[in-house]
């Protein structure tokens, strides 16, 4: 009986220090399709920073509690005092540790949720960019532009509405996550190239049933852009955090989507041709 209780307490202690598992978001944690070099991320702090710090502190707390529990048990056994360490003492210690862990986790989740931006519902076809002949592109006046790099192209047509495009990208990210949760492959197919769709379909088959991943908050920025007479390409970087409501776990969003638009076709949509994690 003594050995069984010792093992149970050690398993509980180590579970506090174990890292969180990753929730299952759109595309999983793999990279698919085309890949391009992009500009460095903006130096201004991202909205995901507080959540990362909170997760780090939580992990530290879990490790400390786990270490104290395991250390106390080992010390008591080698000191010959284990017989005085009653079963109810173990239950109380485990309960206190668990309550502290849950309380701290709740505080971190509340802090992250307070920074959440309300996702806007997607409207219209995938990544539509209506032409605006009178508009003039100005990198200094439009938010979300990462800044050019010598070997990364930032060439956009004059009628490109960057602000609207990035707002739409954020909305479409939520739309695709919802479709991924519900295994709605028909909707996903409208947003991606044929090659990427085939890879994503295989990836989704590895997941069983409906998923429960929700986007908590999301920042979007343009990190690459190139245009020719027949083709426009852009790369969009997403930073944020998401949560699996079923498993009650959270993880960071840090990925780049590469999109293309065929300029030889009238009113052609932007299609995702690559996802880099």
From TrEMBL:
Domain Tim44-like per the UniProt entry, residue ranges: 146-277
Segments traversing the membrane: 60-80, 87-104
Database matches in Pfam families: Tim44
Keyword Transmembrane: yes
Record region (Disordered): 34-53
Signal peptide: 1-23
Gene3D superfamilies reported in the protein's UniProt record: 3.10.450.240
Keyword field: Membrane, Signal, Transmembrane, Transmembrane helix
Domain of life, source organism: Bacteria
PANTHER family: BLL5807 PROTEIN
Protein name listed in UniProt: Preprotein translocase subunit Tim44
